[in-house]
Every structure is written in structure tokens, then in C-alpha cells.
């Protein structure tokens, strides 16, 4: 196959399989698009541009993958892959980082404000710390909640330590 060649097969259930040659072969399995194709320009290594025929799914993918690339770049800048003995710690922090990146992208889209992701993370941290109030330290003995029942028990016999008897 040469660059721009396309091979596809359709199933009876409406599932399409595409094999398309660009720099390498790309495979697509989908049920949304049919066997439609489109032309778009691709740049070669030497800088020249050529028209290439491709499945319409390639155009849709390239049009919507910008957000994914942006999130991957932001994740790679301040990656916090912490080692942990508990497997769920890494999963928790990865999800927390993903939520932070998504909120940063949404914030920049809405406010159209130039702010680095590190500045945004600092603002979030300051906001969370400002909302929480420090617990006041209590002086003295902690209060009993009333559930404990302590009674003095009377001892009938006094026991003498054997070690003390030997010394005396």
C-alpha cells in the first residue's frame, strides 16, 4: 500500500473496518461512520504539501484530538507519579491530577485569562486552605463522652512484691 491508499470492509451489523496508509498503516473499527472518504492536505518531511484521500473518521479524529493532546501535555509538565505500597494511592492521585487538568482547561476556556497551570494549581490550593478552619487546641484533659463507666474496685488483700521482701 502506498500513502493515501484505503481498504475497508463492512459487516452485516453496520460495523466498518478501515485500513488506511499514511506514514504507517492506521486501523479503525467503528460503527458511526460509513465508508465515506474525504481529501485533506498532509505535509511531507521536506515541507511540501500533498492532497491525501482518507476515511472521514480520520478527519473527525484529528479535529477533536486537540483537547486530548493538550491534557497530555499539561499532565506531563507537572507529573506527580508517586511510588506507593498501596496500589490505590497512585490511582487516586492520577485521578486527582486528571480532575485538576480538566478544571484548568475549562477555567481557561470560560475566563479567557492567561494563567499558567502552576499558578492555577496554587490558586486552588490557597482556596482550599482558606476554606478549612484549623481545629482549636483544647487545654487540659479531654472530656469524657459519658459512655465510659469507671468504678473504683475495693481490694481485699494487699500483695507484696517478692523483690522488695528479699531486699528488706
Please specify the SSE layout and strand pairing.
Blueprint: E1 6-10, E2 16-21, E3 25-30, E4 37-43, E5 49-55, H1 56-64, H2 66-77, H3 87-111, H4 117-131, H5 162-167
Antiparallel strand pairs: 1-2, 2-3, 4-5
Write a structural description:
With 168 residues, the protein is an alpha+beta fold. Among the domains are: 5-63, no CATH class; 79-130. The chain is 40% helix and 18% strand. It is built from 5 helices and 5 strands; from the N terminus they run βββββααααα. The chain has a 3-stranded antiparallel sheet, with no helix packed on it. Strand 4 and strand 5 (49-55) form a beta hairpin. The termini are far apart. The mean pLDDT is 79. This is PiggyBac transposable element-derived protein domain-containing protein. Pfam families: DDE_Tnp_1_7.
Amino acid at each position: 500500500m502506498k500513502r493515501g491508499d484505503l481498504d475497508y470492509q463492512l459487516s452485516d451489523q453496520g460495523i466498518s473496518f478501515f485500513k488506511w496508509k499514511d506514514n504507517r498503516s492506521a486501523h479503525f473499527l467503528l460503527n458511526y461512520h460509513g465508508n465515506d472518504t474525504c481529501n485533506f492536505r498532509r505535509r511531507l518531511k521536506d515541507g511540501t504539501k500533498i492532497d491525501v484521500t482518507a476515511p472521514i473518521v480520520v478527519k473527525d479524529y484529528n479535529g477533536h484530538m486537540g483537547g486530548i493532546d493538550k491534557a497530555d501535555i499539561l499532565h506531563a509538565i507537572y507529573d506527580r507519579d508517586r511510588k506507593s505500597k498501596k496500589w490505590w494511592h497512585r490511582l487516586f492521585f492520577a485521578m486527582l491530577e486528571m480532575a485538576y487538568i480538566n478544571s484548568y482547561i475549562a477555567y481557561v476556556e470560560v475566563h479567557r485569562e492567561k494563567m499558567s497551570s502552576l499558578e492555577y494549581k496554587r490558586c486552588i490550593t490557597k482556596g482550599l486552605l482558606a476554606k478549612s478552619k484549623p481545629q482549636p487546641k483544647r487545654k487540659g484533659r479531654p472530656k469524657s463522652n459519658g459512655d465510659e463507666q469507671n468504678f473504683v474496685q475495693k481490694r481485699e488483700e494487699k500483695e507484696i512484691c517478692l523483690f522488695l521482701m528479699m531486699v528488706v
